[in-house]
Amino acid sequence: MNSDAIIPVRTYVLVFLGLIMLTITTTAVAFVDLGGQWNTAAALAIAVIKALLVILFFMHVLYSRPLTWVFVSAGFFWLLILFTLTLADYFMRNIGGAPLRSAAPAAQAAPRQTREITPRALSTSEPRATQRTATVREKRSE
Amino acid sequence: MRARNLSRITCREKWNMSKSHPGLLHHFDDPEQQLDASQSGMWIFLATEVMFFGGMFIGYTVYREGYFEVFAHASNHLNVWLGSINTAVLICSSLSMALAVHSAQSGHRRQLLVFLVLTMLLGTVFLGIKFTEYYHKYEEHLIPGLDFAFKEGNPGHAAIFFSFYFAMTGVHALHMVIGLGLLAYLAVKTTRGRFSPLYYTPVEMVGLYWHFVDIVWIFLFPLLYLVGRHL
After folding, report:
1. Which of the four pLDDT bands, split at 50, 70 and 90, describes residue B215?
2. What confidence score (pLDDT) does residue A94 get?
3. Any chain B CB within 8 A of the CB of A91?
4. B122-128, long-range: CB < 8 A, 24+ apart
5. What band does A113 get if pLDDT is binned at 50, 70 and 90?
6. How crowded is residue A57: how many other Cβ atoms within 10 Å of its Cβ?
7. How many other C-beta atoms can be found within 10 angstroms of the C-beta atom of residue B199?
């Protein structure tokens, strides 16, 4: 920041009071049932506001040069990439057959069927390859 | 600054400048440029810290989604009141740190020392409460690997919650300890009169670090302590 721009103490105290109020709010809200995932959403929204207050005022970013803004946003932008891509991966597919979500078992059933076909086809197999492929085709069409 | 108006600075002038500002390194034009450079560097470091803690936060998010109910039950074993008090203590320490930077900027050396010591005191209170909580967890057999016992759900999944709890708060506490060391260093330098309105870069940088550690806790507190209050 510019060495001549000194933030007045009053601003710091106001931000501090805001942070304390938000801490009380977030604790109080946690004991009220908002239904579903809304409690988590509220807690995270309040945390983001608190973090913004600290970054903009206590860390002087509001009064800083554009270059500092670039570095700050780069850090959080990369965090956003980390969260978006990781969550997209974990919540949209089923890795290693171990479901992370309760909705997963339905999706899990499909690969298991295809796995079962091959051994059964092999156990009843005739020495001729053409017949073996025919049984597999039949089972698949079922 | 006079030096900026001259295309070439003689060695003699440079020596005079460095003499007038003991903190000014020879490869910077003036204290302001030096502060700008330090600030950029500090924010790059903080960006790496964001990624470091981000990895643990994403791991926690994925496992919480997977073992939602067990995580909620496990979360209810944490003491919300100690957690909220600790949040308030940390916010107070952040205000104290901000006021320390303010005192350094306006050249109040005695005030700067008072606020640095106050920040250290509040940081120590935070760590004290944190270790009390750890001790309660030890008594309740909630430390994974140390005779871990959990009855309200799959103990293996609960152990994942407590592993995240101890890893995240532990690394956060480690950052606090490092911060306390840096503050002690600043306090010693302050008593030796190293800082002035022209040179207070270390105070400002440690301030950024301290506030960052505060932000990490601002996210840890709701995610670890509060999410389990309602399923």
Report:
1. very high
2. 63
3. yes
4. B122/B89, B122/B90, B122/B92, B122/B93, B122/B96, B123/B93, B123/B176, B123/B179, B123/B180, B123/B183, B124/B180, B125/B89, B126/B86, B126/B89, B126/B90, B126/B93, B126/B176, B127/B173, B127/B176, B127/B177, B127/B180
5. very low
6. 21
7. 18
Query: In chain B, which residues have their Cβ closer than 8 Å to the Cβ of A24?
Result: 84
- Does the distance separating the beta carbons of B47 and A78 come in below 8 Å? yes
Q: Give residue B161's pLDDT.
A: 92
Cα distances from B152 to residues B125, B157, B230, in angstroms, run 32, 11, 15
Give contacts of B50 with chain A, Cβ < 8 Å.
Answer: 75-76, 78-79
Residue B86, pLDDT > 70, answer: yes
3-state secondary structure (DSSP) of residue A84: helix
Q: Can you give the pLDDT at residue A48?
A: 94
Angle, CA A75 vertex, CA A69 and CA A78 arms, to 5°: 130
Q: Are B220 and B165 in contact (CB under 8 A)?
A: no
A27 touches chain B (CB under 8 A): yes
Q: For residue B230, count other CB atoms closer than 10 A to its CB.
A: 18
CA B130-B134-B135 angle, 5° bins: 115
CA dist B18 and B70 (Å) reads 61
- State whether B218 and A43 contact (CB < 8 Å): no
pTM: 0.79
Interchain contact, A82 vs B40, CB within 8 Å? no
CB B101 within 8 A of CB B203: yes
Q: Say whether A101 and B62 touch across the interface (CB within 8 A).
A: no
